[in-house]
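The instructor's notes for this session suggest beginning with a concrete chain rather than abstract definitions. Hand out the sequence below and ask the class to guess, before any prediction is shown, which regions might be ordered.
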Amino acid sequence: MRPVFKTAIKVAILLGVMAYFIFALTTFNRPAQELVCKGLDIVVNDEQHTNFINENEIRELLVKKNLYPEGQALDAVDLVQLESVLVASPYIDQALCYTTSDDKVALQVTPRVPILHVLNDAGEDFYVDNRGGTMPRGHHVIDLLVMTGHVKRSTAGALYAPLARTILSDPYWHDQIEEIHVDAHGELSLTPYVGNHIILLGDTSDIEDKLCRMRLFQDEGLDKAGWNRYKTISVKYDNQVIATRRD
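After discussion, reveal the predicted structure:
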């Protein structure tokens, strides 16, 4: 190969490398104000399949708040504000917002998880979530453990979320209990799916022990005597199960 030809090749390679560096400098080191948001990627981590919030509703919320980032300068997109607006929704528990390497904004949203559907004597209709917060019913319909009676919205979560969590965490009671009722004195009773009896709990203390005694009575007593023989079965008092027969 002739020296002149070799020199030409080296010059061409050098020019190519220089052209790449110039391209890289102008492309990857653009000032922040020149970067524009090219899209919005949304992931809803709805492990419980509540369907309380979806991608379209999130987009509509951001448009309504004039915070939809697509087409905006990336340095003008306030990620903290986006997160704050999202978690202010009564149906969203957590939100994480960040920019991606392809000039997009990514949102990861975790919905709140309802565990109790309250229909109180005041005519209110709302949900209690697994953290003890309350959520509006809205247009959402979900099959949940129901609570009725004298239930104040301001204290429903603190008082009754632990009870609902205990019932729902036990596969047996999860399938047994249809409704929790609170009377005018704050006394609790449970309505099971099977049988015509009512389970009297009293207050929310020692719930696991009370349910354990009730489970033993059902296994050893109701299976033999019949599930419709008793009107009420009380586990209100320590170490006791008091059953009242029907007239």
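Then share the key points. The radius of gyration is 30 Å. The chain has two domains: 33-111, 114-245.
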